[in-house]
Amino acid sequence: MSKVCIVFASMTGNTEEIKEILVNTISKYTEVDVYEMDMVGVDVIEDYDYVLIGSYTYDDGDIPFEAEDFYEELEGLDLSGKYASCFGSGDTLYVDFCNAAVLFEERVIEQGGVIIEPALKIELSPSYDDQKEKCVQFAQRVIEYMGGGQSKTAN
Ligand SMILES: Cc1cc2nc3c(=O)[nH]c(=O)nc-3n(C[C@H](O)[C@H](O)[C@H](O)COP(=O)(O)O)c2cc1C
């Protein structure tokens, strides 16, 4: 069974809500470990085959404070053999909508990781405008990539 973790940064809870939907969906297939980005170092990733990185976006399309160290440290990590996908909440009032997720995605590629799904970008809370389904579908595509589709109990 694939080992999956989610590492996320959320200030007002929107990215955390996305994380919850991803956990609820993926954990029907396999176990998911969750880490808050400012509480762990990047070496936590080394134990997992699949990594989902979530971050909201701050000033002018930037990586937020809570995610800065993790983002910088990633530059020293060899991600070859790792499968990853990024997600985050943002606000379309800003020019660089959800750019932190894109910056993480680019860094994963630079470090040799494979992006299995393009970044999931959610406008504020996933509970607005029925964006929950977008999160569920993203999680389902991740599960399919892992060779899944059946629930954990069915295996
Ligand atoms: C000062 C400030 C700057 C922001 N800059 C951006 C931005 O450049 N791009 C974007 O998509 N969202 C931007 N946002 C919006 C946040 O990413 C958005 O509120 C998000 O839902 C916060 O996620 P969280 O609840 O997980 O902390 C900004 C918010 C604040 C307060």
Structure report:
The protein is α/β, with parallel strands linked by helices and 155 residues long. It has a single domain, classed as Rossmann fold, CATH 3.40.50. The protein contains four helices and five strands. It has a five-stranded parallel beta sheet with strand order 2-1-3-4-5, with helices on both faces. Helix 1 crosses helix 4. The radius of gyration is 14 Å and the shape is globular. Helix 3 links the parallel strand 4 and strand 5. The structure holds flavin mononucleotide. Flavin mononucleotide binds next to helix 1 and strand 4. Keywords: Electron transport, Flavoprotein, FMN, Transport. Belongs to the flavodoxin family. Low-potential electron donor to a number of redox enzymes. Pfam families: Flavodoxin_1. It comes from Alteribacillus iranensis.
Briefly say what this structure is.
The chain has helices spanning 14-26, 65-74, 99-110, 132-145, and strands at 4-9, 32-36, 50-55, 83-90, 114-123. The protein is an alpha/beta fold. Strands 2-1-3-4-5 form a five-stranded parallel sheet, sandwiched between helices.
